[in-house]
Design a protein that fits this description.
mainly beta
């Protein structure tokens, strides 16, 4: 299982970046890996258990990061 936790922000705030923590859990719910990034707008799990993150970099530009 993979969880994405977002920074707690006040309502209606618009910070330039948001901190995120992505945790991979084993079958018992124990964290086995962790990724810390800013401005993660989406994530997906690949067919070989890789984690794909969609990250904003500048204005409208971004990139996709892959973690195996």
């Amino acid at each position: 299982m993979v969880l994405k936790l977002d920074e707690d922000l006040p309502p209606n705030s618009r910070p330039p970046s948001i901190n995120h923590l992505i945790l991979e859990l084993d079958s018992k719910g124990v964290p086995i890996s962790q990724i810390e990034r800013t401005s993660v707008y989406g994530f997906a799990l690949g067919p070989n258990e890789e984690i794909l993150l969609g990250c904003k970099r500048h204005q409208q530009n971004g990139l996709i990061e892959c973690y195996i």
